[in-house]
Structures are given as C-alpha cells and as structure tokens.
C-alpha cells in the first residue's frame, strides 16, 4: 500500500470490474484525491456501491454467511503450507544463537536508542561522548541525572 503507484497490479484472473478497480485506486491515493476525504457520503456515492440501500443495510441478508463452529475455527481461511518449524541457524550466527530461547531469536540484532538522551539539544556533546566512550546509553542517562540533580 505504501508504494502502491509502483506495486499495485490487478491480475487478470481477479476479473475486477472497472468500478471496483476505480474504488481501490481512489482509496489508495494521496489524501487530497482520496475518496472519502469529504465524508462517508462520497464513498457511498461511488459507482461500485450503486444499488446499495445504505439505510437498510442492517436489515438485509448477508451475501455470504460463513460457517463457524467455534472461536478457533479457521475453515474459512485459505490453506497455506506450513513453513519448517525449526530452521538450522546459519554458521554466521555463532554458537550463542543455540543458547537463546526461540522467542528471543526474533530480537537478535534489534537495538533501541533513547533519542531523548542522545539528543544534542538536550545535552550538547552527548552523542559524541557516547560514541567515543562506547558507554551504554542507560548508564549515561544515570550519570546525567546524578550530575544534574
């Protein structure tokens, strides 16, 4: 959706009407041209919704009623082949990766920076200090709080 201008393609097998394509394109565009910018009535008036009785919508019978047996029933979703449960870690990952619980593997390489403390406007020179000293930002914050209080 972010790069819709270059990535949005309507496959032939989708057999979308010109009205459906227009609706999609007018919803995925710059806000100035976006359908609905002037309110919901603008969307309701689009040609794709022609014949829709908006004031009777809640009384109308649904076009499709999915059969649902319980809250975990997924029979109405497409079936996808399961990906391998465990993939072998790459040799580049190192032996430490095997020691991590599987839930932590998703965060390998993730870093967090507290830009408030690193902000040069808050503490002039702090960014260079942290970089040159290779100090942990939280340690730096603690030092800053102690010095300033």
TrEMBL record:
Keyword list, A-Z: ATP-binding, Kinase, Nucleotide-binding, Phosphoprotein, Serine/threonine-protein kinase, Transferase
Nucleotide-binding as UniProt keyword: yes
Signal peptide: none
GO MF annotation terms: ATP binding; protein serine/threonine kinase activity
EC id: 2.7.11.1
Record-level GO cellular component terms: cytoplasm
Catalysed reaction, written as an equation: L-threonyl-[protein] + ATP = O-phospho-L-threonyl-[protein] + ADP + H(+); L-seryl-[protein] + ATP = O-phospho-L-seryl-[protein] + ADP + H(+)
All copies of domain AGC-kinase C-terminal, residue ranges: 50-122
InterPro entries: AGC-kinase_C, Kinase-like_dom_sf, Pkinase_C, Rho-assoc_Ser/Thr_Kinase
Gene3D superfamilies noted in UniProt: Transferase(Phosphotransferase) domain 1
Pfam families: Pkinase_C (PF00433)
Keyword flag Iron-sulfur: no
PANTHER family: CHROMOSOME UNDETERMINED SCAFFOLD_135, WHOLE GENOME SHOTGUN SEQUENCE (PTHR22988:SF76), MYOTONIC DYSTROPHY S/T KINASE-RELATED (PTHR22988)
Protein name: non-specific serine/threonine protein kinase
Organism annotation: Trifolium medium
